[in-house]
Amino acid sequence: MLRSAKMLFAGLSLATLVFAAPVRAEDAPKAPEKPAKRDGANRPAPGKVLDDALASVNPNDDQKKKIDPIVAKLHDDIKAILADQTVKGPDRRTKVQDVMKTAKTDIESNLTADQKTAFDKYLDEHKPADRGGKKGDGAKKGGDNKPAN
């Protein structure tokens, strides 16, 4: 009798392990998702806003012939800056901004006064959101940074 009780207990234990393992796997907490994107990670690619602004002013064929090489050079320069692993963070951002300013000036020199106004207005309206301060200075995006008294 003792032997059959042991066998019954062993069988029930084995069945519990076999059938309970999949249930436990389903109930286990899921792996954490990818970390949240950094501020500004869903910004348009550098140069995209400039391309869209240019398209919004509808340049004529003569203007396009002069502007297209400027835009092509801009994209090549940005790709080169982003591919350069020796330049990081703020230095990289500054280089991209400098290239963008130069391209903007060159493009505007080929636009009429009305087109230039519309171009600048589009760029102002589609300017990337402010980052809300530098790392470590206590500034928070959307906050007023007043002490909590």
In total, the number of strands is 0
Strand percentage lies at under 5%
Global outline: rod-shaped
Helix/strand class: mainly alpha
Helix content: 55-70%
For the termini, the CA-CA separation is 76 Å
Summed over residues and divided by their number, the pLDDT gives a mean of 74
Low-pLDDT segments: 131-147
Characterize the biggest β-sheet. Answer: none
Order of helices and strands: HHHHH
Radius of gyration: 30 Å
Helix count equals: 5
Notable characteristics:
149 residues; mainly alpha; rod-shaped; disordered C terminus
Structure description:
It is rod-shaped, with a radius of gyration of 30 Å. The longest helix is centred in the first third of the chain and has 26 residues, at 2-27. The protein has a domain at 48-125. Helix 3 runs antiparallel to helix 4 (89-108). It has 5 helices and no strands. The chain is mostly helical. It has helices spanning 2-27, 48-56, 61-83, 89-108, 113-125.
List the topology elements:
Layout: H1 2-27, H2 48-56, H3 61-83, H4 89-108, H5 113-125
Helix pairs in contact: 2-5, 3-4
Q: What does this entry show, briefly?
A:
Helices cover 61% and strands 0% of the residues. It has 149 residues and is mostly helical.
